[in-house]
Amino acid sequence: MLPSNQASWRKANLTCKIAIDNLEKAELLQGGDLLRQRKTAKESLAQTSSTITESLMGISRMMAQQVQQSEEAMQSLVTSSRTILDANEEFKSMSGTIQLGRKLITKYNRRELTDKLLIFLALALFLATVLYIVKKRLFPFL
């Protein structure tokens, strides 16, 4: 009985060892799949990160272009502002000249009116004098 128990115990032990070896082989094979999956996952992560890096670099270049365009626009605005300020100063000086011209024209218009009035009065005096002389010569008794 002891030898048969030992033999059955050895068989059971051998069967368990074979089962354990098979399980370890299966785990190793699955572990290999996991390694492959990890490798492919790492590769896809590396590819994704390089794609994201390229995208960020493209965005950075676009932002740099936008900043350059903004600087050019700002420079153009500064130049335009200077031109407008210069034109404004010139218009102010022209406005002063125009106001002075308007004052002079109104002054000359008043003088013209005064001159016309004086000429009319001088003409009336002249005609009165001529009529007086004619009256004295033609009608001395009146």
TrEMBL record:
Entry keyword Protein transport: no
Keywords for this protein: Coiled coil, Endoplasmic reticulum, ER-Golgi transport, Membrane, Transmembrane, Transmembrane helix, Transport
Lineage of origin: Eukaryota, Metazoa, Chordata, Craniata, Vertebrata
Compartment(s): Endoplasmic reticulum membrane
Principal subcellular localisation of the protein: endoplasmic reticulum
Domain named Sec20 C-terminal: residues: 48-138
Membrane topology: Single-pass type IV membrane protein
Any one of the GO CC terms: SNARE complex
Family stated for the protein in its record: Belongs to the SEC20 family.
A molecular function GO annotation: SNAP receptor activity
Annotated transmembrane regions: 117-134
Key word Transferase present: no
Gene Ontology BP term (one): retrograde vesicle-mediated transport, Golgi to endoplasmic reticulum
UniProt name for this protein: BCL2 interacting protein 1
